[in-house]
Design goal:
The structure is a homodimer. Chain A is α/β, with parallel strands linked by helices. Chain A contains 18 helices and 15 strands. Chain A has three domains: 285 residues, Rossmann fold (3-Layer(aba) Sandwich), CATH 3.40.50.10490; 195 residues, 3-Layer(aba) Sandwich (Rossmann fold), CATH 3.40.50; 30 residues, no CATH class.
C-alpha cells in the first residue's frame, strides 16, 4: 500500500485543472428529474444518497474515481478491516467496524481474537440489560430501575446521546422504551446537579463511561453522583455500571455493579457501536434494538467496500466533499436533518468529522500543504430555515449542504392542516430547499434575488428506525475515513486535545509560573 | 448620516494595507498579564470583555476607531434608537432596544407612543403571569397550571428557549422556578407529539407565538395541540395564550385565553425582550426575573453608546470581528460558553448573526463586493474540548473563538476531587484553552505540535444571573448591529427565507409544474 500526500497525486493536479470550470459550473440549470434519477446511490438499510444538486459533472466524477483508485481508498479500508495499524500516531489498529460484524480477516492481537472479544462483550451487555428489564438486577433498596444516566464526555457522550434522542420517539411508538435515559457530560457542576435533581436516584442506574478511566470531567461527575447516592442512603456500588478498558482503574472494580470492556482499537468518537453506546441504548430500548442498529451499520460498512464510486455512497460523498473543500474552496459543511429526532446528530457529526480530520500533519507527522477537514455544523430543518438559512441562501459565501429526510414520521401521530399533514409539509420544505439552493430565483429587487448555485446532497429513507440510524452513522464514519485516506492524515488520533489538559493541570496546581495563566485565573476568580 | 459601502471608506483601504502584517502578527508572544489587564472592557451588569488574545495591536485598533467614526456607527445606533427607518427593505423602524428602556427620543408612530405601548404590554404580561402563579387563572377543569409550552419557530423559539435553559438552574437554586417550560418548534409532527405526551395537558398553558399569525409550522402545531386538548376533554381557549401583532388573525381572538402584542418594529430574532420571550419567561420564573433580564440588557444598550471603541465592548467586539472576517480572511466564528446553562445560546447567536448579516446586498439592494456575516457555531465547554477543539487547535485553518465564563456556578452544588471543585476545574480549562490557542506549543513530534496564533476573546462575569444574561444577549445583538452598519447591510430583514416558502407551497399544491420538485417529491414519498 502506498501512502502519499494528496498533492503528490496525479488526480490532485487534474482536479486543480478542473477547478476554475468547476467553480463556474451551473449545476442548478442541469438539475432535472433525469439527473436526480441518475444520482441515486444506495447506502444500506433502505437509505439512499443523492448527489444531483452537487457541483459535479461526468468529468469531475471520472477524476474522483481516479483519485479513489490512485489513493487506494478501498485497499486502505480493507487493510483497516484486516487489522493493520491505521492509527499511526498511537500505533493502534482501528476496529470500530468489527464491532458490527466481520468483513475482513480475523483480527488477532497478542493471541486474542478481537472479534470474539467484541461479540462476547455485546452478549454480556445485552444479558445485563435484559436482567435489569426483568427486575433481576435492582437498586440498593430492592427497587427496579426506571431510569438510566450516562456519565461520559466527548465520544462517550455525543454519539450515545444523539442515538438515544434519535430513537426515543421510535421506541415510544413501538412500545420499546424500557428506561428513560439522561446524560451528564460537562465538568460544570450545574450539569450533574440538574440531572441528579431530576431523576429518582433510588431507581436510577448510572453508566460510567471512560476508556482510560482517567477523564477529569467523568471522574469528577462520578464522585458528584456517588456523593448524591450516599446522601440519599443508597449504595453506589449497586447503582453504577462501568464501561472502560480492561487496563483502566475502573475495570474489575467492586465499586461497580458490573463492568463492560472496550479496547484501544475503538476511538472515542467511533465508540457508539461498542459498550459505550451499547449499554445505555440496550438499557433504554432493549438489546435487540441495539443489535438492529449494529446490523444497519454493518450493512453500510459492507456497501462501502465497493470500488466503483458511483455505487459506493460513503466513498462518493467523501470524494465530493474533497472536491468542495480543496478545489471549490468551501471551508465548511452544514448537516441539515429534516427530522427532529436527529436534533443532536449534527453535534455528533461535528465531533466525528472535526476531531478525525482537523489535522495539519499527515499520518507520518509531516505538515501538509493543503486543506484538510472542514468545519461542520447544523440544526434540524425546518427549524434552521427560520434561523441561519438566510446566510446559506443569500450570504456572500457558499456553504455546502447535507440534507437528510424520511418518508414517514417516527410516532405516526399527525394532524392535517390546509390539506396536508405535518410530515408532508416537512418533506415539501426539504424538496423546496434543495431546488431553491440549487436553482435560485431572479428578481429585479436584488434584495429578493437568490443566486442559486449552492450545492447540497440528500440522504433519504422510509423511516428513521434503529437499522436506518445505524446505516446513517456508518455512512458518515466511512465518509470521514475515506477523506482521511485522501488527505493522508491519521483520522484516529486527537493530539490536539493534549495541550489544554496540560495547562489545566498547571492552573489547578496553582503554580503555573505562567503570567498569562495567572492573569486569566485572576479574572476568572480561580 | 452617510451610508457608504464598506469598501468605499478610507479605513477599509488602510486596513487592507495592514492585513499582510496582521496575518503574521504574533499576538501569542505579546500575550501577558499587562495585555490582559489593558484589554478589559466593561459590558454591563458585571460582565467584562477581553480582547487580549485577539490579533490586534495599537495600529489596528487606531484604524478600527477611524472606521467606527467614518461609518458613523454610534450615530447610526442613535438614529435607530430615535426611530429612524433602519430596516430599509421592509421600511420599518427597529426598536428592540426600546423594549428594555428609553435611550433616544420618544418614538411616535402614527400618533402612537411606541415606548408606552411596549411598557403597557410588559405590564400586562407580568400581571397575567402573576395571576397564573396566584391560581387566579386556571385550566378548563379548574386546575392550576403547572407547565408552560411555547409553540413558535425561529425567533419565537431559539432565543426564548436559550434564555429559559440559561436561567432554569439559577431559578431552581433561588426558589424562583414557578412553571417548567417546554418548546414545540419543528413542523416535524414528532416534535409536538413528544412534548404533548410528556406534559400534563390539564395543567399546561400553551403560549402560541407568531408575529404574523401565518407561520406554517406554528399554525400546524397549534392545531396539533388543540386536537390533543380536545381529545383530552379540555377547552383549548382556556389553555392557549397568544403573542402576536395586533393585525394578525390571532389578535383579539376569543379562541385564546389572552393575547399579548408586539409590532413590526421587533424582528423575530430580536424579540426575546418582547412578549415573545416575556410571556414564557415570566410564567416560568416570575415577572420580576424577566424585568431583571431586561434591566441587564438596557444597561448594555446604554454602554454601547460610548464612541471610544476601547470603552465600548459591543463596538470593539464588532470591529475586531470585521478585521478577522474581511482582512484576516476567517469565514467563521465559534461561540464557546463555559457554562452548561448556555447550551443553546450558540444556536440563538447563530440565528441572530447569520440571519442578520448573511446578506449579499447593501441596505439599498445593491450587491456588495466584500464578505459580510460569518458562519457561527458552538457548543459549551468543556464538552467541545472533547469534540471539535481538535480542529480548532491543529486544523489547517484558523477559526476565531469567543469564550464566555463565570466565577460561580448557578446551583452552587459542587464536589471536590483532587483538591479542586468542578467549577474551578471548569474555569481552569477555560484559562488553559485561551493560552493554548494563543501561544501553542512546539514539539519535535509535529503531530504533537500546537501552532498557536489562534485568536479568542473572553466575556466573563461573576455568575449567570438574569441581569447578566440580559447584558450578554444585548452585547451580541449590538455587536451584530454594529457589524451590519460597517458592512452597510440591512441587518433587520430576511428575504432569504422567502423562496423556500414559495416552492414549498408549490409542492403542497401538487401542481408545481417543476420536474425537479416533482422528482424530489417522488423520492421523498410526497
Amino acid at each position: 500500500m502506498q501512502y502519499n500526500d494528496f498533492d503528490q497525486t496525479a488526480a490532485y493536479r487534474k482536479l486543480l485543472a478542473l477547478a476554475p470550470a468547476g467553480k463556474k459550473f451551473d449545476f442548478g440549470s442541469r438539475l432535472d428529474a433525469a439527473r436526480v434519477e441518475k444520482s441515486l446511490t444506495p447506502i444500506a438499510a433502505g437509505l439512499t444518497y443523492s448527489w444531483a444538486a452537487k457541483a459535479v459533472d461526468d468529468g469531475v466524477l471520472k477524476i474522483l474515481q481516479e483519485l479513489a483508485d490512485e489513493q487506494e481508498l478501498i485497499g486502505k479500508y480493507k487493510a483497516l478491516l484486516d487489522g493493520e495499524v491505521m492509527n499511526t500516531g498511537e500505533k493502534r489498529k482501528v476496529l470500530h467496524q468489527l464491532l458490527r460484524g466481520e468483513l475482513g480477516k480475523p483480527v488477532i492481537h497478542e493471541g486474542k481474537n478481537i472479534g470474539e472479544f467484541y461479540r462476547k462483550e455485546l452478549d454480556r451487555l445485552g444479558a445485563f440489560a435484559a436482567d435489569v428489564h426483568a427486575g433481576k438486577i435492582k437498586g440498593s433498596t430492592g427497587k427496579a430501575f426506571k431510569a438510566a444516566v450516562q456519565i461520559g464526555i466527548g465520544g462517550s457522550d455525543l454519539g450515545p446521546r444523539a442515538i438515544y434522542l434519535a430513537l426515543e420517539n421510535w421506541a415510544a411508538a413501538e412500545g420499546k422504551l424500557k428506561l428513560h435515559a439522561r446524560f451528564i457530560s460537562n465538568v460544570d457542576p450545574d450539569d450533574a446537579s440538574q440531572v441528579c435533581a431530576a431523576v429518582p436516584l433510588e431507581e436510577t442506574l448510572f453508566v460510567l463511561v471512560s476508556k482510560s478511566g482517567t477523564t477529569q470531567e467523568t471522574l469528577s461527575n462520578e464522585l458528584f453522583v456517588k456523593d448524591k447516592l450516599k446522601k440519599a442512603g443508597l449504595d453506589p456500588s449497586k447503582h453504577i455500571v462501568a464501561v472502560t478498558s480492561e487496563t483502566s482503574p475502573l475495570a474489575h472494580n467492586p465499586a461497580y455493579l458490573d463492568s463492560f470492556y472496550i479496547d484501544d482499537f475503538i476511538g472515542g468518537r467511533y465508540s457508539s457501536s461498542s459498550g459505550v453506546g451499547g449499554v445505555i441504548l440496550s438499557l433504554a430500548f432493549g438489546p435487540d434494538v441495539f443489535r438492529d442498529f449494529l446490523a444497519g451499520a454493518h450493512e453500510a460498512d459492507k456497501a462501502a467496500l465497493e470500488p466503483d464510486i458511483l455505487k459506493n455512497a460513503a466513498l462518493l460523498d467523501a470524494l465530493i466533499g474533497v472536491w468542495e473543500r480543496n478545489f471549490l474552496g468551501y471551508p465548511y459543511t452544514a448537516v441539515l436533518p429534516y427530522s427532529q429526532a436527529l436534533s443532536r446528530f449534527p453535534a455528533h457529526l461535528q465531533q466525528l468529522d472535526m476531531e478525525s480530520n482537523g489535522k495539519r500533519v499527515n499520518r507520518d507527522g509531516k505538515p501538509v500543504a493543503y486543506s484538510t477537514g472542514p468545519v461542520v455544523f447544523g440544526e434540524p430543518g425546518t427549524n434552521g430555515q427560520h434561523s441561519f438559512y438566510q446566510l446559506l441562501h443569500q450570504g456572500t459565501d457558499i456553504v455546502p449542504l447535507q440534507f437528510v429526510g424520511f418518508t414517514e414520521s417516527q410516532r405516526g401521530d399527525d394532524v392535517s392542516v390546509d390539506g396536508s399533514v405535518s410530515q408532508t409539509k416537512l418533506k415539501a420544505n426539504l424538496a423546496a430547499q434543495i431546488a431553491a439552493f440549487a436553482k435560485g430565483s431572479s428578481n429585479s429587487d436584488r434584495n429578493k434575488e437568490f443566486p442559486g448555485g449552492r450545492p447540497s446532497s440528500l440522504i433519504y429513507g422510509k423511516r428513521l428506525t434503529p437499522k436506518a440510524l445505524g446505516a446513517l452513522l456508518a455512512h458518515f464514519e466511512n465518509k470521514v475515513m475515506f477523506q482521511g485516506f485522501v488527505w493522508n492524515v491519521n483520522s484516529f488520533d486527537q493530539e490536539g486535545v493534549q495541550l489544554g489538559k496540560i495547562l489545566t493541570k498547571k492552573v489547578l496546581a496553582g503554580n503555573s509560573g505562567d503570567s498569562v495563566l495567572d492573569a486569566y485565573s485572576k479574572i476568572l476568580g480561580i
